[in-house]
Amino acid sequence: MSDVVNRGRHVLVFCASSGSCAPAFHSAAAALGRALARAGDTVVYGGGAVGSMGALANAALAEGGRVVGIIPRFMREREWAHTGISELRLVDDMQQRKREMLAIADAIVTLPGGSGTFEELFEALTSKRLGLFCKPIVILNQSGFYDPLFALLKSSVSERFMSEEHLEMWHAVDDVDHVLPAIAAASPWPEDALRFATR
Q: Residue 41 and residue 56: Cα distance in Å, rounded?
């Protein structure tokens, strides 16, 4: 991993709980957890114990990092919650979970995942488009996973549902080593983004 100055950020990671995907996705999540812990950043995530979620949290903890999970009560009742993290915050529902996540995040990293990961990413992108969340969003495009999504978003611009400026709301990287530098290098997003939100 590249050396990054310790800024004590809260880095929100969107990732999956699936244990059935290729092991390489879990390995990347673990590598990110280690990198964030070594940088002195707090990992904020969905609070799960398995899949990429578990790999992320366990690797960060093994490096002495701080990990905060935010999970709806019904998921803890199903025993999906990680019981060994630094802090587990219980919320009433999925909507409150996303609100609380965005409220404390200094940056977002999105790993490959399924519908839940997509939903979280799009909520963050929409909030950024409206100037409600102006912090960096980095998407790990591991093995080209998000290529179809990027093509869709570019199509949205070409059909004038979004403007060219909105393609700057995120930064894509293809390797975990590039995630922290991408956060550090992210250009500020204008707080008056509502001005061109419908352009």
A: 13
Q: CA-CA distance, 60 to 56, in Å (whole number)?
A: 6
How many other β-carbons are positioned within 10 Å of the β-carbon of residue 146? 22
- Compute the mean pLDDT over every residue in the chain, rounded to the nearest whole number: 94
Q: Is 147 helix (H, G, I), strand (E, B) or coil?
A: helix
Q: Where are the domains of the chain?
A: 10-196
Buried b (16+ CB within 10 A) or exposed e, 162-180: beeebeebbbbbeebebbb
Return the amino acid letter for 61: L
pLDDT at 145 over 80: yes
**3-state DSSP assignment of residue 45:** strand
pLDDT band at 7 (very low <50, low <70, confident <90, very high): low
Residues 79-121: tens digit of each pLDDT: 889 999 999 999 999 999 999 999 999 999 999 999 999 999 9
- Are 61 and 84 contacting, i.e. CB atoms less than 8 angstroms apart? yes
CATH 1.10.275.10 at 10-196, yes or no: no
Structure tokens at 198: 């419908």
